[in-house]
Amino acid sequence: MVKRYLDKLPLKKAIEILEEEFKDLRAETEIIAVDQAVGRVTAQGIKANRSAPDFYASAMDGIAVKAKDTADASSRNPIILKKGVQAVPVDTGNPIPEGFNAVIKIEEVNEVDVDNYQIEKSVPVWNHIRSIGESVVKGNLILTAGHKIRDFDLGALLEAGVTELEVYKKPKVIIIPTGDELVRPSKELKKGELVEFNSAMVKSALIKWGAEVKVRDIIKDNKELIKKEVKKASKECQLLIILSGSSAGRKDFTRDILKAEAKILFHGVNIMPGKPILTAKLDDKAVVALPGYPISALLDNYLFVRELIYLLQGQKADQFDQEVVEVKRKISSDIGLEEFIRVNLIADSNGQKPLTAVPLKRGSSAMESIIKADAILRISENKEGLAPGDKAPAVLLKSKAKIKKDLLLIGSHDLSLDLIRNEIAKRGADFRLKLQTVGSMAGLTALRRGESHLAGAHLLDSESGEYNISYLKRFFKNKKMALINLVNREQGFYLKKGNPKNISSISDLKNKDINFVNRQRGAGTRVLFDYLLKEEGIDSTQINGYNKEEFTHIAAAAAVGRGSADAALGIRAAAEVIGVDFLSLTKESYDLILEAAMLDDPRIEYLIKLLREKEIKEQIKALGGYEVNASGSLKILEL
Ligand SMILES: Nc1nc2c(c(=O)[nH]1)N[C@H]1C(S)=C(S)[C@@H](COP(=O)(O)OP(=O)(O)OC[C@H]3O[C@@H](n4cnc5c(N)ncnc54)[C@H](O)[C@@H]3O)O[C@H]1N2
Ligand code: MOO
User: Fold this and answer.
1) From residue 268, how far is each of 12, 271, 277, 278 by CA, in Å?
2) Ligand 1 pocket test: which of 197, 293, 334 has the largest number of ligand atoms within 8 Å of its C-beta?
3) pLDDT of residue 238
4) Hey, which CATH number is domain 406-639, 3.40.50.2000, 3.40.190.10, 3.40.190.290, 3.30.360.10?
5) From the CA of 198, how far away is ligand 2's center (Å)?
6) What values do phi and psi take at 398, rounded to 5?
7) Of ligand 1's atoms, which has the minimum distance to the CA of residue 365?
8) Atom 3 (ligand 2): residue with closest C-alpha?
9) Which residue, 296, 429, 316, 313, is CA-closest to 367?
10) C-alpha 272 – ligand 2 centre gap (Å)
């Protein structure tokens, strides 16, 4: 029988349960000095103790006058005002002398002599006078209860004579990381050890939301130890977070412990990632067990724990900043699960249409993809994925203004691209270069769909021996396209140090003793490998490991480095990064491809200029295996 251990609660329902169960859960309050209060949340409404200003004050440097004395003044009929009687000098902020009711700016006044001023314009009553309470009015409610204090709130409070205020104490949270395989972050790891980093992510987010957080030492997967720590910690905090052990593994004890000690509220929500979250109430305290996978823990922290931290401070969590975006490819999603998918966003050239969302890697432990993401696309639980042209909401992770300026490059992987990306940022350019590495062919497909500004490809045409052009003819018929040479680079074999299996040519791979690891279908390196095999008259079935695939040069080199393969094809620079031997076989060119119409886009001009710079060429060359003479050179093709 299928063992079902998870609830299938819709997200909204799950949040309602938390709100209902913990509606009276509040942190204690304390009185603190106003100038220490930024980020804290008011426990009571706050009224102004005084008006500001509490006297009539001059708003300008000039002279205080009686408005009626100025009534007839004009440029043709200048009027003289007697100093001390009809006019008194005042500076900005000075009280207005009794009996005066307007101010004229000094630059509009002519000082005729020590006793007389001349003016050429009449002024109305209250001209340039700050009235009593112009800034804040005594008795007015300045801040409501449940207000998170900002820098400018401080100013208004202090001006209004409020020097102390009652705020919620920072909610006390304890985080307990659990797991046999986990160790504190360090540079060196033993085999099988994994760095415990969820606590650092979760803690930092909670501090941002106003909590005071303690992280306990990592506890081994031992039921008694975890139980002891849970009971102890729950007495010292308002919210307890247990990291991992929320699913059904042999050592996932969290559910058992909470079942015995607490009231379980729910275990399992219809979302992905983050499905196996578990929440409970232990002696009125909130307990949340977050799933182990980092992206799942992260998402659940934002969706659920954030609500609780706000609730503890008498607030309701803000809605996420969402934007309706469009997709240009099919994106699958399970019906009955609300899916949260990391995406890059790109704007069309005139910025009129909705932003286009381009999905990134989905895995619940793919951290680089959350760093790269511009937004999290939400596919609701009643949808079975999205089709090209469909729209859906996305939670923005970066500013929309910045996203609209970015350049997105989707294509094959090359180490020089990271160098360039970093250089653009280092120089403070007003755009960022974003990369999605997916392989040459997938890059061209994305460009054709309008999901990127640039593709990166190194696709050999086995007939002509030329790179990329024949593919462009196929992909971009009747279009005017441009090719910018990025680099010419060496392709060859990654081999174990010292080449123990004596591999010296493609035909050596036929040896049954040799394990190869290939690149994914559609990768330029895969195309090259097929070409090299064909040239030698070798059939792919003769190669051990032809169907084993890695997705980047680095991953292929690393497979050789750790011994799971004897050889792989790839670029020299990755061999240098991983520290494996390299046997050069051929040279290829890697081009950036774009619509020719984009060539006068300032960002593209910047990129081309950068690629032509001597200093950048030297840096790329130093990565190993690169020829940079043609970097930045341009070809325009009418296809
Ligand atoms: N048979 C099933 N197995 C799993 C299911 C399922 O439905 N049936 N759900 C999967 C999903 S979805 C998730 S999410 C995870 C949640 O698992 P746990 O909460 O029990 O977490 P672990 O298995 O202990 O760890 C998963 C993974 O994450 C790493 N990890 C754990 N804690 C940390 C930490 N504090 N910092 C960094 N990394 C952490 C851990 O080493 C594991 O690699 O269960 C699936 N399984
Ligand atoms: O839901 Mo798990 O939380 O997909 O990774």
Assistant:
1) 13, 8, 5, 6
2) 293
3) 95
4) 3.40.190.290
5) 14
6) -135, 170
7) 28
8) 274
9) 296
10) 5
pLDDT at 250: 65
- Chunked into runs of 10 residues, the chain (639 residues) has average pLDDT values of 74 96 93 96 96 93 96 94 95 95 95 93 95 93 96 96 97 96 89 94 97 96 92 95 80 85 94 95 95 96 97 92 95 94 91 92 88 96 94 96 95 93 96 94 96 94 86 94 95 94 91 92 89 91 93 92 94 91 92 96 97 96 92 94
Q: Is the CB of 254 under 6 A from ligand 1?
A: no
Ligand 1 within 6 A of 165 CB? no
For residue 141, what are the β-bridge partners? 47
Whether the CB of 606 sits within 6 Å of ligand 1: no
Output the pLDDT for position 196.
95
Length of the chain: 639
Of ligand 2's listed atoms, the one at least distance from the Cα of 293 is 5
On whether the CB atoms of residues 16 and 279 are closer than 8 A, the answer is no
CATH of 322-403, one of 2.40.50.140, 3.40.50.12780, 3.40.640.10, 2.40.340.10: 2.40.340.10
Mutate to test the pocket of ligand 2, among 272, 338, 369 (most ligand atoms within 8 A of CB): 272
For ligand 1, atom 4, name the residue with the nearest CA: 247
**For residue 288, what are the CA distances in angstroms to 78, 204, 230, 266, 306?**
78, 17, 11, 10, 11
Closest C-alpha to ligand 1, atom 6: 247
pLDDT at 465: 81
Burial of 107 (0-12, 13-18, 19+ CB in 10 A): exposed
Give the DSSP letter string of 199-260. HHHHHHHHHHTT-EEEEPPPB-S-HHHHHHHHHHHHTS-SEEEEES--SSSTT--HHHHHHH
Q: Are 335 and 318 in contact (CB under 8 A)?
A: no
With a CB cutoff of 8 Å and minimum separation 6, the contacts of 68 are none
Q: Give 11-25+171-312's CATH code, choosing from 3.40.50.11540, 3.40.980.10, 3.40.50.1970, 3.50.50.60.
A: 3.40.980.10
Q: Give how far Cα 568 sits from Cα of 204, 457, 525, Å.
A: 41, 19, 10
Please report which ligand is nearest the Cα atom of 339: 2
In this structure, what token pair is assigned to residue 284? 């009125």
Say how far apart CA 502 and CA 394 lie, in whole Å: 53
Locate 172 and state its tokens. Answer: 């006390």
Pocket of ligand 2 (CB under 6 A): 272-276, 291, 293, 296, 364
pTM: 0.89
Classify strands 407-411 and 454-457 as parallel, antiparallel or unpaired. parallel
**Nearest ligand to residue 218 Cα:** 1
253 Cα–ligand 2 center, Å = 18
**What pLDDT, on the 0 to 100 scale, is given for residue 246?**
73
Query: How distant, in Å, are the alpha carbons of 5, 186, 246, 397, 431 from that of 297?
Result: 19, 21, 10, 17, 31
Evaluate the CA torsion angle 151, 153, 154, 159 in order and state its sign.
Answer: positive
Measuring CA to CA, which residue among 341, 319, 323 is closest to residue 332?
Answer: 341
User: Are the C-beta atoms of residues 62 and 128 closer than 8 Å to each other?
Assistant: yes
Q: Which fold has domain 29-52+134-168?
A: Molybdopterin biosynthesis moea protein, domain 2 (3.90.105)
